[in-house]
Amino acid sequence: MTNLEIVKSTYEGENSEENGKALAAHAADNIQWTEAKGFPYGGTYTGLEEITKNVFSRLGSEWIDYKFIPEDYVASDDKVVAFGNYTGINKETNKPLSVRVTHIWHLKDGKIIKFEQFVDSKTVLDTMK
């Protein structure tokens, strides 16, 4: 698989479980995952266990149908940039979310070694209030 195909596989499966399996299959053991400063799950996490605990489990418990909808990708060497929108409904406020986002993926030898998120955190936080 190309780096672009690897990244696409983490977004474009039939459901979030399939996307998660693709991420697990292609993640380096010490993958570094950075959620934007100010984002509700902001910080850098190492390894899938930390990422799942601090990001994916929280997204699943705090949102209804939260997802990233990719609009396009740009691939260059060992980097892939995906941009699009986050959507979902916050369970506590019942407010819908729609916000632009960019993800930068770094890969080495067919493994995802780093992920970085850029998002308007204020829009997300306002949806949660």
UniProtKB/TrEMBL annotation:
Domain SnoaL-like: 17-113
Superkingdom, natural source: Bacteria
Protein name in the entry: Ketosteroid isomerase
Molecular-function GO term, any one: isomerase activity
Alphabetical UniProt keywords: Isomerase
